[in-house]
Every structure is written in C-alpha cells, then in structure tokens.
Amino acid sequence: MEKWIGDRISIVDQDKSTTIVIHPIRVWWKEILLTLWVVSFTFIGLYMLYQLLTGFVGLNYMDIPTEEELDNQRIYAIVFLGFWGYFEFKTVKALLWYRFGKELLRLDLDGMTIKKSILSYGKANRYFFENIKKFGQRKQEETSFGQFFENAYWSMGTDALSFSYMGKEKSFGRRLNDKDSRLLMRLIDDRIKKLLKQSRKRA
Length: 203
Known about the structure:
The protein contains 4 helices and 9 strands; from the N terminus they run βββααββββαββα. With about 200 residues, it is an alpha+beta fold.
C-alpha cells in the first residue's frame, strides 16, 4: 500500500524491501516562465554562435568594420558563449528535472540504492548498510549566496539529507523542506533497523 510524506514523497513497503520516490517541486507558472526563458535564451545563444561562425557578416554596419573591431566582436562573442553554455546547461537540465525527474530509493536486506533519474535515465548507486555513517539532515546556510544561487528555480537545487560512505559524503532529497526531510530521515532509519533485524534472522 502506498503511503505519502507531504505531497512529494511516496513510500511502498514490501516484505523485504521499501521503495521511496521523491518527486520534484511542481509550480506550473514557474515552469511556464522557465520554459519561455530557456527558449529565448537558446535562440540568443544560437544566434551569437551563428554570427561568430559566419564572421558577423549579418550585421548591418554603417561603415565597413576594421579588423580590430571584428576581433573585439569575436572576443565578446566567445566570452558570452562561455557564460551562455554554462547557464544553458543548468537551465535545460533543471527544466527536464522538474518535468520528468525523480529520485528513487530502494532499501532491502543488504543496503540502499539511490537513483536520480530524468526520463528513467540515471545511474543507480548501491550503498551497503554497514558502511553508512553519520546519516542526517544537511546544514543549510540561509544567508549564503551559493545556497541562494543553487536553490533558485532555474537550478535543480541542493539535497536535504546526507550520509558518510567510505569517507565520502553522499546526499539525496533534492529541495525537501525541513519537515519532510526530518520525517523521511526517521522513516529510513526505522526501515533500516527493521531490515537489519530480518537480515540477522536470515543469517
């Protein structure tokens, strides 16, 4: 039977496993604005790329530009396209995430599998319970510019929960609020304890 934490986290308990799905935030008017922004931004970038590749022949100069002016235009276009490529990648990926993404967690007798997927594409990572340490909520610095930057709607956002695995930090629970992340943490902790008991009985 499917259960829910808030309106974004679904849980299905089975005999020897638990499946958790974390859905992305869906705000329809923000998605529409982001879609329009991505389309416009893509057009501008492609136009600049076209001008760079054609040597700006499409520009209507009153006078014939000098070679120095053309060089300056090329430098400006290259710098612009560098920034454009970075933000284009971030925003397109974020838009696809909101439309088609989800986080999948599966707990079984041996460990936990986490997969962040878009249209079912994504890498599933396996973590064994005996190597999972320091499982808890991540500290969020509300006044940090980096935190604000990563959690803007055109970005995919930061993870709410983390744990240490073989000396490395792993995280999941993208854009979960404090209440939902706390409830999810308790649920996972409870399910792991139950699964470990079953695993010991099996052994």
